[in-house]
Amino acid sequence: MKKATFLASVTILFSISLNAFTLGTLGDFKFEKMNQNVYVMHGPEKEPSKENEGFMNNPAVIESQNGLIVIDPGGNYNVGKKILSEIEKLSKKPIIAVFNTHKHGDHWFANKNIKEKYPDVPIYALTYMIEQVKDNAADTWYGILDRLTGNLKGTKPFTFPNQGIENKQTVVVDGQTFIMRHFAKGHTDTDILIEHTNSNTLFIGDNLIINRFGAFDESSSIVENIKLLEKIKNQEDGFKKYTLYVPGHGPSSGEISKTIDPFLDYMRIVLKGAQKAYEEGMASYEIKPEVDEKLKAYHSWDAYEGQMGKHLMKAYSEVEMLDF
Ligand SMILES: [Zn+2]
User: Fold this and answer.
1) What angle in degrees, to the nearest 10, is found between the helix axes of 260-279 and 222-233?
2) How far is the CA of 187 from the centre of ligand 1 (A)?
3) Which of 4, 203, 232, 283 has a CA positioned 20 to 30 A from the CA of residue 61?
4) pTM recorded for the entire structure
5) Dihedral of CA 75/80/86/88: which sign?
C-alpha cells in the first residue's frame, strides 16, 4: 500500500472510531433501519448506571421527504450529543418534530440537544405529561438519573415538550401521519402510544419493556398495563396488526410472540400470584418464592432480583384496592 493511501485509510478509520457511540463493554450503538423509513437505536437493556451513562432507551427516527422526526431522543444532555451525531449520520435533513412518550426523563431529557440546534422544533407530548414534568416529575427523574449515572451535567434547564396532544389526536408532519393513543393508566398516567401509519409501526413506550425491568411508579397500574397489552395483542380499541412493534426498552420486532407476550405474561404471573396471596390471607412476600419459581424465564432479565418483589407488592396493593 502506498504511504499516502495508507495514511488516508488510517485517518478514515480513526475518524470513524472517534464518532462511534461506544459505551465501555456495552459496545457500539447506532440506528438500524427497522421498517421502511423507520430507524431505531436500541439502547442497553440495563438500569441507568455510570457504565451506560444514563442511555438505555430506544430513540427512533422517521425520515420524511424534507426532514427527520424523532421519538424519545434520550436521557441526558451528554448522551444526547452522541445520539444527535448518530442521527446526523443517517441523514443531513433537519429535525422537524419530536415526540416524547411519557414523563420519565430517560426518554426525553435529550430534547435539549435538539432544541439547541433547532430552536423552533415542535416537541409533542400528552398535555398532562407536560403539566407533570413541569410540576415535579422532571426533578424527580433528574435526581434518580443523577444519583445512578453522575452524567446529568448540562441537562438543566430542562427542555420541556411544547405541544400538548390528546388521546386519538392525529399529527401530520411533512406527509407522515401519527395517531396518538392514551389510556388513563399503564406504565404511567402520562403515556402516549404512537401509531405511525405510513410504515404501520406502533411505538409502545414503556408499556412494553423487554429483557430488563424497571419500577412501576405511583402513577402506574399493572392491571391496566396488562389490559393495554391485551388490547394491542387482540387488535381491539383501534389497534391493528402492525408490521413493527417498538418497546420503550429492548428489541423491536414484528412478532407479537417476541414483543408483547414476554412482558404481558410476566405481569399476568405476578398479578395471579398477588391475587392468590390476597385470597388466602398471605402477605405478598410469602407468595414470592412460588411466583419466583414460575418466572424462571425472566431470571436473566436485568434488575429481576431488585424489581420482582416490588412488582408483586404493587400488584397486591392493586388487588386490595379493587376489592374495596
Ligand atoms: Zn418509563
Assistant:
1) 140
2) 7
3) 232
4) 0.93
5) positive
> From ligand 1's centre to the CA of 5, what distance in Å?
49
Prior bond of 157 cis (ω within 30°): yes
Residue 156 corresponds to which cell in the numbers above? 438543566
Tell the CATH superfamily of the 18-256 domain: Ribonuclease Z/Hydroxyacylglutathione hydrolase-like (3.60.15.10)
**pLDDT for position 76:** 97
Task: Give pLDDT, residue 17.
Answer: 47
Nearest to 56 by CA among 157, 182, 144, 154: 144
Phi (first) and psi of residue 43, to 5 degrees: -75, 170
Span from the CA of 57 to the centroid of ligand 1 (angstroms): 9
Residue 276 C-alpha to ligand 1 middle, in angstroms? 28
User: Low-confidence residues of the chain, pLDDT below 50?
Assistant: 12-17
Quick one: cell of 225?
398495563
Ligand 1 centre to CA of 205 (Å) is 7
Q: Which sequence spans correspond to the domains of the chain?
A: 18-256, 259-324
26 alpha carbon, distance to own chain's centre: 18
Element (H, E) at 229: helix 222-233
Q: How far apart are CA 163 and CA 173, in angstroms?
A: 13
What does DSSP say about strands 163-165 and 170-173: parallel, antiparallel, or unpaired?
Answer: unpaired
Q: Which residue has the cell 429481576?
A: 304
